[in-house]
């Protein structure tokens, strides 16, 4: 069980590092990429919190699922940040609408 937790944490951290690099390449803005990373971390934490609530133990499938959650949230976040970053409006409020 302990090896599973270590493998899951290592996989998630590596995925987060790679996703931050991808966000930097997509947006060319470290602030926007940091906000995207925060969004990805929040999504991952929600799913990490759901696992014990549902009564699941951390097995092989759950470890793969948690790493896949990072990948899926990167896809969502990249689209969201791309639209925000390339919006023609100049203020944050107008861009968020």
Mean pLDDT: 85
Shape descriptor reads elongated
Biggest sheet features: none
Q: What is the succession of H and E elements?
A: HHHH
Task: Calculate Rg over CA atoms.
Answer: 15 Å
Span between termini: 45 Å
Q: What structural class is derived from the secondary structure elements?
A: mainly alpha
Number of helices: 4
Please report the total strand number as a whole number. 0
Question: Helix proportion of residues, in percent?
Answer: over 70%
The portion of residues forming beta strands comes to under 5%
Q: pLDDT below 50 for ≥5 consecutive residues: which ranges?
A: none
Q: Would you give an account of this structure?
A:
- The structure is a single chain.
- With 97 residues, the protein is mainly alpha-helical.
- Helix content is 84%, strand content 0%.
- The protein has 4 helices and no strands.
- It has helices at 2-27, 30-53, 60-85, 92-96.
- The longest helix is centred in the first third of the chain and has 26 residues, at 2-27.
